[in-house]
Every structure is written in structure tokens, then in C-alpha cells.
Amino acid sequence: MLPKMLSLLPAFLSYFAVAVALLAVFYLVYVNVTPYDEMALIRQGNTAAAVSLSGALIGFAMPVANVIAHSDTLADLAAWGAIAGVIQILTYLVARFALPHMTQDIPAGKVAPATFLAGLSLTVGLTNAACMTY
């Protein structure tokens, strides 16, 4: 049993490394699309920033996890991960359009718009993940 597990370790490490890289790239893109500095706000104890960023990250991670479970190649993972990232960024932009004051509310610590954004990100991420089953 152990030798078989060890033989699968390179594949695990490859998929995990690509997933972490996708998460890092998504994080960097996301925090540059938003007009406020989530990490600075989180360091200051801003719950709204933590909720909204967490929702976006989890909403992105769900389809990535699903693709890992169903893909045959790392190229599939990278391609579908990029699509998931674009969809999550579009989700943020839709929420920003629906709640134009969100860009002031989240830095001000208002949790309601942040919770809406997180819920929307999770809902879209879950739907996205389901669509990526092939």
C-alpha cells in the first residue's frame, strides 16, 4: 500500500503546486481589481474585508478543486482554473455594479455588502464547479 501511495506522490505534488499557483495568481489579480487593500484592512481588523476576500478565494477554490478531481492533465487544470478566475472577477464586477457603494462600504467595515459579495462568490463558485464536471 505504501509503495503505491509513494508512486502517486509526484502527481499529487504537481496538481497541488499548480493549484497553489492558480490561487496565488487569482489572489493577486483580485486584490488589484478591487479599489481597496484587503490585506491592510484585514490587518486593521476589518471583518468586511475578510469576509469578502474569503468568499472570493473559496468561490475560486471550489471549481479548481473540482477540476483537480476530474481532469486528466495539468494543462486542463490550468485552463479551467483561468476560466474560474475570470468568472470570479466578473462576479465581483457584477456585485460592484449592483451595489455601487460597496467600494466605500467594505473599507468602512460594513459587513452586509461584504457578506452579499461573499455569498455571491460562493454561489457562483459552486455553480461554476458543477459546470466543470466532465
Descriptive overview:
The chain is mainly α and 134 residues long. It is built from 6 helices and no strands. The protein has helices at 2-33, 38-43, 47-70, 74-98, 102-105, 111-131. Helix 3 (47-70) packs parallel to helix 6 and helix 4 (74-98) runs antiparallel to helix 6 (111-131). The longest helix has 32 residues, at 2-33. The chain is elongated and about 55 Å long. The chain starts with a helix and ends with a helix. The relative contact order is 0.17.
Give me the secondary-structure topology.
Layout: H1 2-33, H2 38-43, H3 47-70, H4 74-98, H5 102-105, H6 111-131
Helix pairs in contact: 1-3, 1-4, 3-4, 3-6, 4-6
Tell me briefly what this model is.
With 134 residues, this protein is mainly α. The chain has six helices and no strands.
Task: Write down the overall geometry.
Answer: elongated
Major sheet = none
- The class by helix and strand makeup works out as mainly alpha
Strand fraction equals under 5%
Distance between the termini: 29 Å
Rounded mean pLDDT is 95
Beta strands, count? 0
Number of helices: 6
Rg estimate, integer Å:
16 Å
